Amino acid sequence: MSAAARLPVIDVAVAVVQRDDGRVLLAERPRGKVSAGYWELPGGKFDAGERAEQALARELREELGVELDAAYPWLTYEHAYPDKRVRLHFFRVLGWHGTPHGREGQRISWEDPQAPSVGPLLPANEKLLKALRLPPVYAITNAGRYGVAEFMARLEQALEGGLRLIQVRETGMAPEQLAQFARRVVTVARRYGARVLVNGDETLARKVGADGVHLQADRLMRLSVPPSTRLWAASCHDARQLARAAALGADFVTLSPVLPTATHPEEPGLGWTKFTRLVHGYPLPVYALGGMRLELLETAMRHGAHGIALLSGIWDRVVAPRAEVRNS
Ligand SMILES: Nc1nc2c([nH]c(=O)n2[C@H]2C[C@H](O)[C@@H](COP(=O)(O)OP(=O)(O)OP(=O)(O)O)O2)c(=O)[nH]1
Ligand SMILES: [Mg+2]
User: Fold this and answer.
1) Measured distance CA(206)–CA(196) in Å, rounded
2) 17 lines ligand 1 (CB under 6 A)
3) Which positions fall inside the Nudix hydrolase domain (predicted)?
C-alpha cells in the first residue's frame, strides 16, 4: 500500500454553480486555510453525521451567503495530496437564491471553464474542468436510417441547434464508405467546434482526424492499455464495466439501456433507480443511453447523469436553426 492510500479520506461537498452562459463560480481559498491563494469550487468538509447534500447547503450558506434550492449529484472522485486524501462529491447547483459573495473575505469570480482567467486552481480540480467541457448531449450517428445525404442535413441542423459531441457508428457501412462518411462528419463538426469519436476503431479515428474513439464494453474489458487518442469513451452496462472504465481513465462512459428502446421495446432497461445506484459515487461523467429523448435531459441529470446519449431521439427532431451559433 502506498503512503497516500494509508491516509484517512476526508469527504468534501463541492458546488458546481453554473450560469446559463456556462460560466462557473470559482472562489479563492481564504488566507489562513490550507492551500490559501489557490482557486477552487466553493464547498467544504462534511460535519460529523452530515450527508453530502446537507454539507453542500451549509457550505454555500457559510461561504457565499446563498440558499440552495436544487442540486444534482455529479461526479465523486478522490485526490491524494502529500498529507491527505480528499473525496470530492461534486454537485451541479441548479437552483439557489441570494447573491453570491465571499463571506470569508475570499474573492469570487464567474469563469469560463474552458479558460479560467484566475488561478492557480487546486490540482484536484483539473478532472472536473475536463468533465465540464463535455456537453449535455452525445449523439450517435444513424445514417443507415436516413441515407448519407439526408443524414448530413440533419446533422448540420443539430449542430446549428447546439450539438457538440458526436459518435460515428454505422454498422452497415463497408470500410471505405465508413471512412468517407466519418471524414465528412469530422469536417462539418469542426466548423461548429464539435468533437467526434469513432466507434471501435482507433486507426480509423486517427485517419479521419477525429478526436477519439468510443469502445464497446467487450473491448473495454479486454483492454490492458487505454487508447492514446485525445479523448476516449466506453459503453457500459453494469458495475464491472463501469469500474473498468474508471480504472483505465476513460474521459466518459455511456450507461445503457436505461429505458426500453425503439429497437428492443420488450427489454425493460435498467430504469432510473438502478441507474442512480450504479452511478452513485462514480468518478467519470456518465451519459444515460437507451430510450432517451431531449426532454429527458433534466430527469437524467437529476438521477446523477452528466447528460444523455441519443441514437434516434435527436435526428428526427427538427431543430430550429440558430444563426448566431454558426461560426463557419
Ligand atoms: N471546497 C473545495 N475543496 C477542494 C476542492 N478541490 C480540493 O482538492 N479540495 C480540498 C481542499 C481542502 O483540503 C478540502 C476542503 O476543505 P475546506 O478548507 O474547503 O473545508 P471547509 O470549507 O469545511 O473549511 P474549514 O471548516 O476547514 O475552515 O478539499 C474544491 O474544488 N473545492
Ligand atoms: Mg471550503
Assistant:
1) 11
2) no
3) 7-136
Q: Give kind and range of the element (H or E) at residue 70.
A: strand 67-80
- Of 9, 40, 41, 83, the residue with max ligand 1 atoms within 8 A of its CB, to mutate for a pocket test, comes to 40
- Kindly give the number of the ligand 1 atom that is closest to the alpha carbon of 124: 8
ipTM: 0.96
pLDDT of amino acid 154: 95
SS3 288: strand
User: What domains does the chain contain, in order, with CATH numbers?
Assistant: 3-131 (3.90.79.10), 137-325 (3.20.20.70)
The CB of 86 under 6 Å from ligand 1? The reply is: yes
Ligand nearest to the backbone CA of 45? 1
Report the nearest-CA residue for atom 32 of ligand 1.
41
* Cα 7 to ligand 1 centroid, rounded to whole Å: 16
Q: Is the CB of 13 under 6 A from ligand 1?
A: no
Mark 220-237 as b/e (b = at least 16 C-beta within 10 Å).
beebeebbebebbbbbbb
Nearest-atom number in ligand 1 for the CA of 63 is 22
Alpha helices in the chain (DSSP H): 3-6, 52-64, 126-132, 143-146, 148-160, 175-191, 202-207, 217-222, 239-248, 271-279, 297-302
